[in-house]
Amino acid sequence: MDFPSLWKRGIRALLLDLDNTLCLWRTGEFPESAVRLLRRLQAQGFRLAVLTNARLPRDSPVRVALAVLGIPLFERAKKPLPFRFRRALRHLGANAKEAAVIGDQLLTDVLGGKLAGLHTVLVPPLSPREARRTKVNRALERLLGRRL
To answer: Which site from 50, 71, 100, 136 is most exposed, i.e. has the minimal number of CB atoms within 10 Å?
Structure first.
């Protein structure tokens, strides 16, 4: 991911998907590599938020790690609806022109970001292991053409 290029384009806020973008789906773990990435992005000046359609347990390592980093977590985001994207922007004090969504799904992350007027970045999923409805989305993505 070319984060310096995003910065040069005026992107100052990043809304990141959780499952299969920052961490593996349903592992309950938040890898140290994700923590290092988020710290590096914060040090570069990016304002960060994480959006997920999931609901995490109160004692989730993901929730704990994000709280330690001071990164807001927006659960049950109902992506691709744009409402939580906009709420995350307000929380970060950012506008749509200076924000990007980074996620692994065309029909939730990218579509939701586009509906909210944001720059979008589609990344490959970390793992083929995912929810059944995500597998259905992946089949639709292949029909639509995954490339943007």
So the answer is: 136
Fold classification of 3-144 (topology level): Rossmann fold (3.40.50)
Query: Residue 70: left (phi > 0), alpha (psi -120 to 50), or beta?
Result: left
What φ, ψ does residue 89 adopt, rounded to 5°?
Answer: -60, -45
Label residue 141 by pLDDT band (50, 70, 90). Answer: low
Please report which residue ranges of the chain form alpha helices under DSSP H: 3-8, 32-43, 61-69, 83-92, 111-115, 132-144
Helix (H, G, I), strand (E, B) or coil at 84: helix
User: Mean pLDDT for the chain?
Assistant: 89
Average pLDDT (49-75) is 95
Distance CA 95, CA 67 (A): 23
DSSP string, 3-24: HHHHHHTT--EEEEE-BTTTB-
The three-class DSSP label of residue 100 is strand
Element (H, E) at 99: strand 99-103
